[in-house]
Automatic annotation (TrEMBL):
NCBIfam families: ncs2, NCS2_1, pbuX. Keywords: Cell membrane, Membrane, Transmembrane, Transmembrane helix, Transport. This is Xanthine permease. Belongs to the nucleobase:cation symporter-2 (NCS2) (TC 2.A.40) family. GO terms for molecular function: xanthine transmembrane transporter activity. GO terms for cellular component: plasma membrane. The chain crosses the membrane at residues 51-68, 80-99, 105-124, 131-152, 172-188, 195-214, 234-255, 318-341, 347-364, 376-392, 407-426. It is found in: Cell membrane. It comes from Bisgaardia hudsonensis. It is a multi-pass membrane protein.
């Protein structure tokens, strides 16, 4: 992590530079934002027009909620550079509802009612903040980075292990090339070259990929130039079992969002208070309610963008609010989003591996300040070990009841919950190491 930020939270870079810096946050987040609606649309075998509506609404609402999260609206918003987007935490519950008679209307209705859990929970954040001492915070931040590494590795290799071109020498060479450019610019670049290292590295990789014929423009050709949002396109239904499942997912998201916001505070050199957490989680809950009304899936904060801040030293909330504006445009002009999605995965992977590894480094630095004791060692070891077990081998939960898969399907959630519980139950004095 940078000890000296190039731009602090309240700084406003020049407009041209702001646009460039906002673009690199957009590049880091866009794939994740459209992934959830694409997965749900494909698995439920929705018509292409319906899947496009899910995707466009996700981009538009992501932009609106990101702007509110960064700029604030009364008590709503953390007022830090936080990109918001659709969350994979809700996918299992959404698909279970989607396959029932309720369909997509049930997913959105359950999301709307379930968001009340997060909205109410936000008012208890000052108390919840006390549950996150440095040993828990550092463990959660480190687990966030570790859980993202497999995503970056697959990008780096060019897809999924089942793909024919996975980890070909060409893919690995391209990703390594982008990685080297990003590292060189961060280490030796000055001014704009250091601050915009990620977007410059990816643009360079994209141009080379274009010359090599790697870029597929099929999505750009078929994308609509302009599309208006369609509120309540699927209607709303309220299945009881679906509402319960979504409510559990929202409880899990509160834990994940807390971890992300604490990591964000570390990256931006901001002390996170209960008020910060209350505003952030409230924005998260209200944003998810808006998403349901606008015909897309629930939201949470994006941890990958914390890596962008850690790597570049640009912590300006105005830059990320500008990213929100770009996301709104992407939602209204689908062809814009399609162009971004055309970036080959190895180009994303070269920058992504570095970004996510920086989150791990931030977690290590936080834990380095924690007292070295047997108790703290147990908290860190068990939490990260069990979190990684689920991250690396998700099949571990396949034979357990659906409830367990829904709650503990994320390594971040497992690591966070264990760190919280162990910090509460392990005695403070009896197993401290002797000095």
């Amino acid at each position: 992590m940078n000890n000296n930020l190039l731009y602090n939270v309240e700084d406003k870079p020049p407009l041209g530079l702001t646009l460039l810096l906002a673009a690199q946050h957009l590049l880091a987040a866009l794939g994740g934002i459209i992934a959830v609606p694409l997965v749900i649309g494909n698995v439920l075998k929705l018509p292409t027009t319906d899947t496009i509506i899910l995707v466009n609404a996700a981009l538009l609402v992501s932009g609106i909620v990101t702007i509110i999260q960064c700029r604030g609206l009364g008590p709503i918003g953390i007022r830090l550079p936080s990109v918001m987007g659709t969350s994979f935490t809700f996918v299992a519950a959404a698909l279970a509802i989607g396959f029932s008679e309720s369909g997509v209307a049930g997913i959105l209705g359950a999301s709307l009612i379930g968001s009340i859990v997060m909205i109410i929970g936000s008012f208890f954040m000052p108390y919840i903040r006390k549950l996150f001492p440095p040993v828990v915070t550092g463990t959660v931040v480190m687990m966030i980075g570790l859980s993202l590494i497999p995503v970056a590795v697959d990008w780096f290799a060019g897809g999924q292990p089942t793909d024919a071109n996975y980890a070909t020498p060409e893919n690995l060479t391209m990703a390594t090339f982008v990685l080297i450019i990003v590292v060189a610019l961060v280490q030796w670049g000055k001014g704009i070259f250091s601050a915009a290292a990620i977007v410059i590295g990816m643009m360079t990789g994209y141009i080379i990929a274009l010359l090599l014929g790697w870029v597929n423009f099929d999505g750009v050709k078929t994308a609509q130039v302009f599309a208006l949002p369609q509120p309540l396109h699927f209607g709303l239904a309220f299945p009881i079992s679906g509402i319960i499942g979504m409510s559990i997912a929202y409880l899990v998201t509160i834990v994940e969002s807390n971890g992300n916001f604490l990591a964000l505070g570390n990256a931006t050199q901001t002390e996170i208070t209960g008020k910060h957490l209350r505003g952030g989680v409230l924005c998260d809950g209200l944003g998810s309610a808006l998403a349901a009304i606008m015909s897309t899936t629930p939201f949470s904060s994006f941890s990958q963008n914390i890596g962008v801040i850690s790597l570049t030293g640009v912590a300006s909330r105005y830059v990320v609010a500008f990213t929100g504006g770009l996301l709104v445009l992407a939602g209204l002009f689908p062809v814009f989003g399609a162009l971004i999605v055309s970036i080959p995965l190895p180009v994303l992977g070269g920058a992504g591996l570095m970004m996510f590894a920086m989150i791990i480094a931030a977690g290590i630095q936080m834990l380095d300040k924690v007292e070295h004791s047997k108790r703290n060692g147990l908290i860190i070891a068990i939490s990260i070990g069990c979190g990684l077990a689920v991250t690396t081998r998700p099949e571990l939960l396949d034979k357990l009841p659906h409830f367990f898969k829904e709650v503990f399907g994320s390594g971040i959630t497992v690591g966070s919950i264990l760190a919280l519980i162990l910090n509460l139950v392990l005695p403070e004095e009896s197993i401290k190491s002797k000095k």
